[in-house]
Amino acid sequence: MTYSKSRYLVRRLQLDPSLIIVILLLSIVVISGFVLSDRFGTMRNFMNVLEQSSGLGFASIGQAMVVIVGGIDLSIGAVVTASTIFMAAVVDLHPGLMIPMIFGTLLFGAMIGFCNGYIAMKTGVHPLIVTLGTASILNGSVLIYTLQPTGGVPYWFEEFAYGRIWNVPISGLVMLSCFALIWLFLRYFQTGRAFYAVGGSPEAARLSGIQSNRVILLAYSASGFFAALAGVYFVSRTGVGDPRIGDPITLASITPVILGGLILGGGKGNILGVLLGVILISLLSNLLNYMNISTFVQWVIQGVIIIIAVSVYVHKGKKL
Amino acid sequence: MSEVAANLSEGTSKTVKQLGRFIVPLSLMLLVGTATLLQPSFLSVNNVQDILTQAAPLALVVLGQAFVILVRGLDLSVASLMASAAVLATAFNATSDAMIPVIFLITIAASAGVGLINGLLVTKRNVSPFLATLAMMIVLQGIRFYYTQGAPSGSLPEGFRILGAGRIAGIPVNMLVFFFFFCILGWLLHKSSFGRKIYITGGNPKSANLVGIQADRVTIVCYVICSVMAGIAGLFLVGFVGTVDNWVGRGYELDAIVACVLGGIMLTGGKGTLWGAATGALILTLIFNIVIILGLPVQAQLIIKGIIIIFVAGLFSRSI
Fold this sequence. Notes:
The complex is a heterodimer of chains A (320) and B (320). Chain A is mainly alpha-helical. In chain A, 74% of the residues lie in helices and 1% in strands. Chain A has a two-stranded antiparallel sheet with strand order 1-2. In chain A, a hairpin with a 2-residue loop joins strand 1 (164-165) and strand 2 (168-169). In chain A, helix 4 crosses helix 12 (249-259). The longest helix of chain A is centred in the last third of the chain and has 27 residues, at 212-238. The model of chain A has no long low-confidence stretch (mean pLDDT 85). With 320 residues, chain B is an all-alpha fold. Chain B has one domain: Orthogonal Bundle (ABC transporter involved in vitamin B12 uptake, BtuC). Chain B is globular and about 55 Å long. The interface between A and B is large, with 47 and 47 residues.
């Protein structure tokens, strides 16, 4: 009786069992935060964490969409870097183009993502290799252009990262709305649902009349788009284009996706889980900073959390 | 009609397959030819010795990586393990060359432990290889940095210099060591019954189980081989570089995967030869060398590497 009831609840809330792990970890972090530090549990701190997590959040949305269709995008960091350079360099020369360049940068990212998807699709090469290749090409081009932070944007543009509406950071609001939109898209739109079908089995999806190729192209373009959005956020935050800023983002963007219960190999997962993953990672590093725990130990903790999250709930079947 | 088409496409794919066998050596010859034409000093004894010395550490990693990819895996932790092996070697602060075998034995044992954990996570917990080894990479990195507190100190016996950069009768010592391992592992993979088990497991783990092969055990052994080779490669690389830092071998994990793909090892498992993998490592090093010798900026290495990865991987995926 209890069993079926709890199962009903799980179904009702659309809770993937693996989502329970992230919720559990999140509650552990929050509770220990309130117990261990008096500065952790303040509204001010939570808002700061929300602002700081935006970059990772944007990158993870893109990664999640690619992972759902059964791929992986290792070029996200390179796209982030390239978009910060592209934006800062152009705006530095033509300050009047600030607003159009935001959209230009997003388009630039989407185009690179499209290329990734197109190459992976046409050649049949594993997306891991394709995106690694494009990442290498992008990083090389960026580093030939500049070896140090360069360019600049008007001062007011930092409002995107630091500005507040009713005390809520604008970048955080944008991130939350992106998650909400993508959640609606994946859940209620035909194309969105097709993402899961394609991730589950591209061949079966194709046979049931879904244009798998288009869905895959859309996923990769979205990944590039959101990576560029993360780039725009970093430009707003730092005011320059930095040829190294994206390096840690690629692998970092995978962690929340996995914590959120998505499976490498595709076809499963809730994008809101990814949001929880982003918040978990950001709150955890925030708390560990308050506790004066060195970055080095934080790395170990992060690695162990990944192992726990993926090995406690055993995924049967598909692997990457 | 469609039968004819199918036959035809099977015919072409057979020809392509035949071609595929020669792509690796052909592209190697093509590279050497072009480089010699552009820069006659390319084939000078000195430069060839340099290339071989540089190629050896990467080639050692590639040998191990090949085993893991053959059983449908992937090991992202190799570079982190290389650096950890280097740091571990300095931990003894040894000055006499007599300590070298001891250092090697301890490194090999520790690396084997890492490989065992990777293998157990992948087989017993069904974690995707990408994630298990990614987490291992982060954990090792954290432990290493915590131990060194960011700046490694300690010294290595002088003999490491000879192992990493010395020559016997004009042949680089590390190349001789590579050749030694190449013969042993080549025999293991291509001549022993265990090698056949590896191919069967990589081709289809389930049917491997059905014919009485303990696929899990085979997979674990492959991960252990990979980690041990990475540990050894780390020691040789640190001998070549001459100083220990926390990032020895950075980027080797991706380069090793790329070399395997260039050498015709399929990421889907069960296909490819050790000979091809070694050639892939040589090709990759050649590309780096050619960029330098042509006087192009170092960053161009990244661009050229990216283009070649996508191109060659595209060629191979067509020949499946």
